[in-house]
Amino acid sequence: MNIWKDTYPLIVSCAKGLAAHTAAELIKLGYHIVEETENTVVVRGNMRDMMRLNLQLRTAHRVLVPLLRTECRQLRHLFEDVYSIEWEELLEADGYFTVNSVVRNETINDTRMPSLKAKDAIADRMRDRCGGRPDSGRETFGASVFIYWVDNELIVYIDTSCDPLSKRGYRKMPGSAPMQETLAAGCVLASGWDAASPFVAPMCGSGTPAIEAALIAINRAPGSFKSHFGFMALKGYRLTIPGEKAGTSVRQRFGASPESIWKDMVAIARAQERKQGLPLIIASDIDHEAVETARLNAIAAGVSEYITFSECDFAATRMPPPPGVIFMNPEYGERLGAGEDLEPLYRRIGDFLKQQCAGYTGCIFTGNMEMSRKIGLRSSKRIPFFNGPIECRMVVYDLYEGGAGE
Questions:
Q1: Closest of 99, 108, 55, 8 to residue 269, by C-alpha
Q2: How do residues 2-38 score in pLDDT, each as one tens digit?
Q3: Cis peptide, bond prior to residue 323, ω within 30 of zero
Q4: What domains are defined for the chain?
Q5: Cα-flanking dihedrals φ and ψ of residue 352, to 5°?
Q6: What is the mean pLDDT of residues 342-349?
Q7: Whole-model pTM?
Q8: Which helix or strand (DSSP H or E) is residue 144 part of?
């Protein structure tokens, strides 16, 4: 396979619970879904598609390209399988790469060993074919290889994203118990917000939901924040296509190198950003430090001018005229049934929604369904998500004028 010339499966990975939202993004971008699992969505594409998905997807974690899929029973077989891949066509002999893995195999006691064995196999192959080998380690400035070895199934991927796409780069100060960027984006998209009406985020914490809403409103590509992707360290990104005759550049063949194509893609995405007619986005928190953290993160994201911050109790948040979306992420404890002392808070949330948010769509993100019942409103939807290992729901309320959803 030639990653710069061929069409191949693109495995888009995401956090558990986000696959349906990632699939919806892909369909909106014009892709046909080949397969969908609990935390992956598969489409087919080429170099431009791989770059486009890294640039545009809001709910995905990685864009993976499979190199080998086989049966593997023991660690020595893994070495042989990884060695069989033509790494000299993918990696620079004087470059750098890292290996990450997911391993669940009964023969492996130390799950670090498959990654180390894969590094050895790649290094040996490169040394045998090129007379030199790239450095390797845990840093994420070079190429990235991902090993999936579960039971006897082995899949070796090139990770074209390297650092997860959830790491946008703007969250300089995470604050207390921050919501991951991809999860926050998934919640905003799932809320049905039209990116034209107000979006209000009381209890804003480090500001991630409000910032993701602002990024959606201005149509900023989330990948435009990142300075490095794994595909940038692959052989041929800047100069030549592996397998072409010596002296035949990518520019000669395609009119532009992959590097130039990427830079043009980012420039076009920036030019398509929305500058005027933006909706009102409000973020509030009773904690002064949380508000300042959210403001600094919004500045880093380049959207502080589109968000109105205020320091106040959630019930004192100024609500613009409806319609719009109000999104709240209250405390919920670590497990179902925990945190009975939160009952007064959830009752106050219900009173706030009924009394001050008529005409809005109310979205409460929680991992404590017992407490959510204390809100005292009939929900229209309960959308499943996972916040790390915690199973959560975004409970949606249609807060009708006059009845506030009762």
A1: 55
A2: 899 999 999 999 999 999 999 999 999 999 999 999 9
A3: yes
A4: 8-165+224-270 (3.30.2130.30), 181-220+275-398 (3.40.50.150)
A5: -60, -45
A6: 95
A7: 0.91
A8: strand 143-150
